[in-house]
């Protein structure tokens, strides 16, 4: 008996993680599926095939994609510089980056609520400088929502791009400049293509949570517009309509999955296309 | 990098400064104004520490903080222990090794989907929402961080050390406890800190799974944000910021490469 | 060899099963309440009904432990009570419009009026409604009128003809006019219906469309949809007017001196009642709780924390409010007759679909 059990001790110790994963990740996901198809019909799905809910999904998608794009534009130069040019400042800059990355998400939102308030820092400074007479209307606008979204998610974009660029072989840069390419050409033809996997993971790392975001539009945007996350949270937290909540969760997940697949395929084509050009 | 890159460098430095300013100025402002003697956002009135006094005397905040600490600590313990044993099991070979990739899913799925799933499951099974429901959710999150990190480091370990130990007559379990585990210790510590911070700051799982009676610090902050801006939140934010920074210093002093993707 | 593999397979399956059992025990252990002392009650109320510090005072003085649960919507309360068949809670604080349903489903227990010492102190206007004519099952605790607060620097009170205009029209006729609107679809639809059609009890499809277009048009001058931040936004000058519960308006009036309020003569009200679910076995403890929280001091403390209108009449004179506010809190019978309750005019899903359409 001992011979049978003793060698299996590693299994006994190691398997709870997998059990946990199955019980608390896969079973819930299956559960959502089962819950949404209540009494064997797709009625809860059909209820969402209306113009309003389609608009909600489109808007969330637009928010996610534009946030990711703006973050990319902001983050790439920063990641580039830290990975390739920073030298002895590298660790310090990374440390500075860790701080917003690891402080509570809600505190970032609060910081902007405080700063953009009618009597907040921006308005008081501008009035003190005499640039404006009346306080600016900053909070509860679409623009402010974008600003705060970008603010919260840029560190998520910097990180993977930095990791990808860190592995970049600087000699390639030297080789290309020796062959007569300008810095700009080297950037677009060599550095960016090689860092595309990092760009892609950063994009996903921002797109996925930004798509499901509902707190920032509520607190900063004045809750004037409905997003996918808001619909999901409303339906799931009101127990009577839980099958509808499950159905909408599945619809949003499918939409997101579709978009992610499209972007993935696009990025693969891009990488292949660019690699061919280099040769 | 070549002479022609110097111009690009100058332009780049300006961009970096702007981006970092963008990232930091709001934080600096609200920390500074936590000492402002005004109950609402306004120009600088005077220096005071009364918001900190009100903060430290509020029993609700301490209760929420206590809850957050308990949940995060237990989640960290569960996920690190389960994670490291699982990686050990997986590295023994066989089909289990292919199961490692399952854990990457925890970070790929939107948190809201996982939270909704857990909520539905708990409600249907009659499991009351609250502390343990949240611990379960955070352990799921933790596993998604621990397993990839430990697996990464495990692969970098020198297999000759384990082979030598086996040759000297140790059982696989002894090898694990006396050789592998000490080598993995820095990774485990950094993974633990990472999971702790993620769990401590998480609010999406808490929003769905904590029920109406259990309040964690992020939920408390959310309820305060919903009722309006108050300098007590400034004070709380400053304290949390200092706390996170100290943890970060601790984390980076362990000098382990952080690679999730 | 194959037998060995089979044996290993069985052992492994047993181990997995063992872990599943262990995990389930942890998970279900949270359900068991080993240390639930006998002298304790479970209360289900909304967050501002009972001040937690005062609850602690009650616990200290009587030795009865109180487990205070909160709900965010009355539907949630209904579901919780239905699923537990009225057993999980000893005291609930529902709003007026669910009481009829709770009563019809037999979820409420009759109150022993002899055990309650404060009944003659209650405001008679709050008693005897159709959902509980003799108040056999419920007693009012606090109530609210939906008022419209406004900034006196921006709005000239003499120009206000109908208070609803402040909310549903661009009152100041310039692009900078902004208001705070409620974030609860139930309340929003009730307001719109009252403004358009008066106190009807149901809506025809054409009427629903009118309500939807009114709310959609209104969005142009809504600064923020919120139930909690209105007082701050009004006071800081971010909005010109705000339609909120009287508790929030009273809070704003206490904090900012340049604000004032108006009440439509056909305003909407909401009365929170205390009731005992049918499955509760701790009535005597609940009566102690009620007697404690219906004292003058309790109501004064409740007002100080949450600014709720008390159900007890004699408290009103002791509160730090203006005479005009006092008159509202007492309310004459004629005024009260013209008020209406918030009603759920649409089923929940339709209500939310409308709200999504408004916010699209």
Description of the structure:
The complex is a heterotrimer of chains A (279), B (261) and C (360). Chain A is built from 13 helices and no strands. Chain A is mainly α and 279 residues long. The radius of gyration of chain A is 24 Å and the shape is globular. Chain B has a single domain, classed as MetI-like fold (Orthogonal Bundle). Chain B contains eleven helices and no strands. Chain B is globular. The two termini of chain B are 28 Å apart. The C terminus of chain B is likely disordered. Chain C folds into two domains: 156 residues, Periplasmic binding protein-like II (D-Maltodextrin-Binding Protein, domain 2), CATH 3.40.190; 144 residues, D-Maltodextrin-Binding Protein, domain 2, CATH 3.40.190. Chain C is 43% helix and 17% strand. Chains in contact: A-B, A-C, B-C. The interface between A and B is large, with 92 and 90 residues.
Key structural traits:
heterotrimer, A: 279 residues, mainly alpha, 13 helices, C: 360 residues, D-Maltodextrin-Binding Protein, domain 2, 2 domains, nine-stranded mixed sheet, 14 helices, globular
Protein topology:
The complex is a heterotrimer of chains A (279), B (261) and C (360).
Chain A: H1 2-5, H2 9-36, H3 43-46, H4 51-85, H5 90-102, H6 105-116, H7 121-128, H8 142-166, H9 170-178, H10 183-211, H11 215-219, H12 228-236, H13 242-278
Chain B: H1 5-32, H2 50-57, H3 59-91, H4 105-108, H5 111-125, H6 131-156, H7 159-167, H8 172-201, H9 204-209, H10 217-227, H11 231-252
Helix pairs in contact in B: 2-11, 3-6, 3-8, 3-10, 6-8, 7-8, 8-11
Chain C: H1 2-29, E1 40-45, H2 52-62, E2 65-70, H3 74-84, E3 91-92, H4 96-104, E4 108-109, E5 138-151, H5 164-168, E6 179-181, H6 185-197, H7 205-218, E7 222-225, H8 230-235, E8 241-245, H9 246-255, E9 259-262, E10 268-277, H10 283-293, H11 296-306, E11 309-310, H12 323-330, H13 333-338, E12 340-341, H14 348-359
Parallel strand pairs in C: 1-2, 1-3, 6-7, 6-8, 10-12
Antiparallel strand pairs in C: 4-10, 5-8, 5-9, 5-10, 5-11
Helix pairs in contact in C: 6-7, 7-14
């Amino acid at each position: 008996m001992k011979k049978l059990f003793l060698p299996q001790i590693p299994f006994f110790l190691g398997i709870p993680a997998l059990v946990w994963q199955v019980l608390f990740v896969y079973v819930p996901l299956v559960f959502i599926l089962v819950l949404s198809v209540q009494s064997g019909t797709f009625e809860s799905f059909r209820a969402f095939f209306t113009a309003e809910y389609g608009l909600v999904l489109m808007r969330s998608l637009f928010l996610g994609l534009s946030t990711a794009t703006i973050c990319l534009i902001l983050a790439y130069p920063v990641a580039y510089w830290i990975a390739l040019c920073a030298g002895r400042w590298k660790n310090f800059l990374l440390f500075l980056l860790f701080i917003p990355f690891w402080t509570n998400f809600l505190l970032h939102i609060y910081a902007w609520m405080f700063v953009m308030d009618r009597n907040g820092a921006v308005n008081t400074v501008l009035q003190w400088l005499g640039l404006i007479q009346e306080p600016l209307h900053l909070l509860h606008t679409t623009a402010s929502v974008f600003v705060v979204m970008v603010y919260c998610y840029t560190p998520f974009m910097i990180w993977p791009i930095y990791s990808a660029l860190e592995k970049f072989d600087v000699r390639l840069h030297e080789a290309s400049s020796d062959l007569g390419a300008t810095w700009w050409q080297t950037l677009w033809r060599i550095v960016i293509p090689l860092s595309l996997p990092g760009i892609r993971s950063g994009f996903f790392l921002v797109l996925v949570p930004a798509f499901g975001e509902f707190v920032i539009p509520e607190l900063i945007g004045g809750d004037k517009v409905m997003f996918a996350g808001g619909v999901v949270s409303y339906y799931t937290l009101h127990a009577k309509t839980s099958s509808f909540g499950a159905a909408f969760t599945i619809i949003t997940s499918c939409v997101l999955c579709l978009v992610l697949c499209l972007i993935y395929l696009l990025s693969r084509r891009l990488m292949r296309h660019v690699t061919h050009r280099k040769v | 990098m070549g002479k022609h890159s110097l111009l690009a460098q100058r332009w780049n430095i300006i961009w970096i400064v702007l981006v970092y300013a963008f990232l930091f100025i709001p934080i600096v402002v609200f920390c500074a104004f936590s000492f402002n003697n005004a109950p609402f956002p306004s120009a600088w009135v005077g220096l005071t520490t009364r918001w900190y006094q009100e903060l430290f005397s509020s029993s609700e905040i301490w209760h929420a903080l206590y809850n957050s600490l308990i949940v995060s600590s237990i989640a960290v313990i569960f996920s690190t222990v389960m994670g490291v044993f699982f990686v050990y099991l997986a590295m023994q070979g066989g089909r289990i090794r292919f199961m490692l990739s399952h854990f990457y899913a925890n970070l790929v799925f939107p948190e809201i989907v996982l939270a909704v799933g857990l909520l539905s499951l708990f409600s249907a099974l009659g499991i009351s929402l609250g502390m343990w429901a949240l611990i379960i959710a955070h352990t799921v999150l933790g596993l998604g961080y621990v397993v990839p990190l430990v697996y990464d480091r495990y692969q970098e370990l020198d297999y000759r050390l384990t082979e030598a130990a086996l040759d000297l007559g140790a059982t696989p379990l002894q090898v694990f406890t006396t050789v592998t585990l000490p080598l993995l210790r820095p990774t485990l510590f950094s993974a633990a800190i990472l999971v702790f911070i993620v769990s401590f700051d998480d609010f999406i799982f808490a929003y769905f799974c904590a029920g109406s009676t259990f309040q964690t610090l992020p939920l408390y902050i959310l309820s305060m944000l919903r009722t309006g801006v108050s300098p007590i939140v400034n004070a709380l934010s400053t304290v949390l910021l200092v706390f996170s920074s100290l943890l970060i210093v601790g984390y980076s002093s362990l000098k382990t490469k952080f690679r999730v993707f | 060899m194959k037998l060995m593999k089979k044996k290993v397979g069985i052992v492994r399956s047993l181990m997995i099963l063992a872990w599943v059992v262990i995990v389930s025990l942890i998970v279900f252990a949270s359900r068991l309440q080993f240390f639930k002392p006998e002298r304790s009650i479970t209360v289900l109320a909304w967050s501002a009904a009972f001040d937690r510090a005062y609850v602690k005072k009650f616990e200290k003085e009587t030795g009865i432990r109180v487990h205070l649960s909160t709900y965010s919507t009355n539907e949630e309360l209904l579901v919780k009570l239905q699923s537990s068949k009225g057993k999980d809670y000893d005291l609930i604080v529902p709003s007026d419009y669910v009481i009829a349903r709770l009563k019809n489903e037999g979820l409420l227990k009759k109150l022993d009026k002899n055990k309650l010492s404060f009944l003659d102190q209650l405001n008679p206007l709050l008693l005897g409604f159709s959902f509980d004519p003799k108040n056999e099952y419920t007693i009012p605790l606090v109530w609210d009128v939906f008022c419209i607060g406004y900034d006196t620097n921006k709005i000239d009170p003499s120009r206000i003809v109908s208070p609803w205009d402040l909310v549903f029209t661009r009152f100041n006729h310039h692009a900078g006019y902004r208001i705070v609107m409620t974030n609860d679809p139930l309340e929003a639809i009730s307001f719109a219906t009252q403004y358009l059609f008066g106190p009807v009890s149901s809506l025809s499809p054409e009427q629903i469309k009118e309500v939807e277009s009114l709310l959609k048009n209104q969005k142009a001058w809504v600064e923020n949809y919120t139930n909690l931040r209105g007082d701050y936004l009004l006071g800081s000058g971010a909005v010109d007017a705000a339609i909120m519960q009287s508790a929030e308006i009273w809070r704003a009036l206490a904090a900012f001196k340049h604000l004032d309020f108006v009440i439509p003569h056909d305003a909407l009200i909401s009365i929170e009642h205390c009731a005992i679910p049918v499955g509760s076995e701790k009535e005597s403890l609940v009566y102690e709780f009620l007697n404690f929280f219906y004292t003058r001091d309790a109501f004064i403390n409740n007002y100080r924390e949450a600014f709720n209108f008390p159900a007890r009449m004699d408290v009103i004179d002791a509160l730090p409010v203006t005479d005009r506010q006092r008159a509202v809190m007492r309310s004459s019978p004629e005024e009260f007759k013209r008020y209406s309750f918030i009603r759920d005019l649409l089923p929940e899903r339709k209500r939310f679909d409308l709200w999504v359409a408004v916010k699209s």
